[in-house]
Amino acid sequence: MAAEMMGVDMVTILVDDIELQVPKGELIVESVKRLGIEIPIFCYHPRMKPVGMCRMCLVETGTKQPDGTIRKMPKPQASCTLPASEGLAIYTQTPQIIQDRKGVLEFLLINHPLDCPICDRGGECPLQNNTLFYGPSTSRHIEFKRHAPKAIPLSEHVTLDLERCIQCGRCVRFTEEISGDGQLAFRFRGASMQPSTFALSAFESKFSGNTIEICPVGALTSSQSRFRARPWDLESSAGVCTLCSCGCNVWFDHRIGKLVRVNGRTNNAVNEEWTCDQGKFGHDYYNHNERQASVFIRTSARLESTSWTVGLGEIVTKLKSTGTSAGFLLGPKISNEAGFLACRAATALGSRQVAGIDSRVELGANFEVPADSLLSLEQAKVIVSVGPSLADTLPIVYLRVRKAASQKGAKVISIHSSPTELDEFAFLSLCHKPGTLSLLIQGLDGSLALEEVALQTGVSAQALKEAKTVLEGQGVSFIATNQVAHTEGSAALSDLRRLAKKLEANWNHFCETASGFASLASCSGLGMELQSPESILKKCLSGDIKFLWLVDFDPFELVKDRELVKQALEEVEFLVVQSAIASEASHYASVVLPQSLPAEGGGSFTNLDGQLQNFDAFLPKIGMARADWQIFAELLSRMDLAAGMFSRQDILQMAAKDVPYFKEALTGKQDHQPQPSGAGV
Amino acid sequence: MSLGILKDVARPILGGMGITAKRLRHKKATISYPEQRREQYPRTRWRHALTRYENGLEKCIGCSLCAGACPAKCINVVAAENTDEDRHSPGERYAVRYEINMIRCIFCGYCQEACPTGAIVLRKEFELANYHREDFIYTKEMLLEAKAST
Q: Which among A118, A229, A232 has CB closest to B92?
């Protein structure tokens, strides 16, 4: 508590006659948690502003009189809107309060349908729990309940059951305060009040899945996992989302070896407790019906099922003859261990040809750790986001930027060529003509006249002038991804970096893929450069690369130039396709290796600000599939290039010897520990 | 000696026969089983059945509460959503799979007690022996009552 006393006024309050020191203005519903006392809640959420809508958190209050006695207020108050002040006395367990809670719950249950047996929330429902602990044991109602349409699809992902809604407003406030899209609002008043979108359009938030988790009843349910399992049938295992580089901590809820749903797991250094819709609903590929289950080898124009021994044997023989011209394409979702071992194989074989999505070769700048972490980004005074929609590429970074802007008063400057979500709350939106980003940057760093720049880029000179003034201040953070290079050319991204350095601002060039950070670190640690997939494919065409290994990399999906991919895969002498799901590339393969997914094979993943997070396996592997790191560990052992890799830890220890980043991550920072807890409240 | 034979051998035999003769007047306690069946007690709990409403819809809504209450963990329910074209039960949800492992089942009747719609009931059919372990997995098709003929 000493840390809190610094710079914060502390006040003494009485909670159930126990004296307690709390920061002045802290909400009572939070203060009592320090004593381990629980006040039942519905509408209150620690990460959102209190509204006092549900009246569940009623407490009796009083004030300390000069003579030491306590004078009680005549009526109870909602503790979620009650700030702590000196001499405040709180009573959470009096007969009056117990009676009041029963009353509130009876009131909420007037219209709540008792279809708990078919409700997806039944079993983890705050309304069920609170009724059990604080509610009346029997019902006095004989009247009819309110009826409303059931199972309204609010969007592709969210289904609304209006009857079950208790009008707490959590979902509405989430879209207003956290995701910032303001998609939901209340229609009508009184008993017919209902959350809905404006004009009854689809609920098109990029974070809509979170409303399902924070709904205290089963009013908002997931369309995807609807009726797929009861909460008590599900086993929750701690995992990390690998769909982008944010590295969100999630719970994978599975039943009988099948993934059913994904929920946010609290980690304040990464995703707080939120998930994006891509992460929450995008993991269905675990249950894909074309999962690769056995090793295939090409024998006279046909792929035939074979064993690992034969498959890997063939690869080893081929690598012994063509090892110096072997290329590796690293997929976006592979583990740190696999990424490192692939790089290690490329160096040991002498080919040094490794490519990945997050390549920075064209920028001249190789591996560079972002200056900000997700946490420190919140403290920035000015955040400059450059490029296409941040909410699409890095959703969690977007939520941080939004939080910095709405809660900490950061000024957001959004530079882009087509409108993005940031414009809603940005201090300045500089929407330039496509292809003129370099010019805009030259204007901002003062090498071109602002009027000239304004004319060419289509941004008003006034806005540019304002932006320039803001950028000269303190605490500026730049956010960019490779998307800038894709849309505006790599020169523009280099210019941007130069501008950031010149302004002495924090330069954050974030990776976009889960494997990006570790691949870049591994390559630079081993003295290589992570090339772009295109350049490797071109080398296949020119004959510099005769052996190509696709490490869970689907070129037809990830490389734009389809013709190039086709020709390169036809041209290359020997093609290894290592993948979890059968892909088009398998048609060209010499050997197909089945790879398991992170929840089945485990792996460690590094997110965009360099936090190494372990992901332990909990689902059974499909058929013959092996984890990506196991495949490479076996290959390296068979080729006598490395030995002693029996577990992931062995590989990470090995990586720590070669790669400074892994050394730092393993010794310095503490790896996160998943806290056991059920689904969100 | 001869007196001894009368007292120690003949009398007990006659006495025993006497009891047998007395029993002849009583009603028989045994029945010839496969041909004859005894009436079960009203609260007998044997083989489960999934019942239907009078209109033919299944009572089971696939809520899995029976599986949750089962102390032997022998019930597996997989639910799905009813559509207007393919309606199985009155509400939104029905059981697409309903399996009971009869070897594991201890016939405690908790499933029947937990069922909110009275769909699963334990009835009096007790001849459950079979030759293969797999045959003891009772599927929904086996458990569901036949539709009342109209």
A: A118
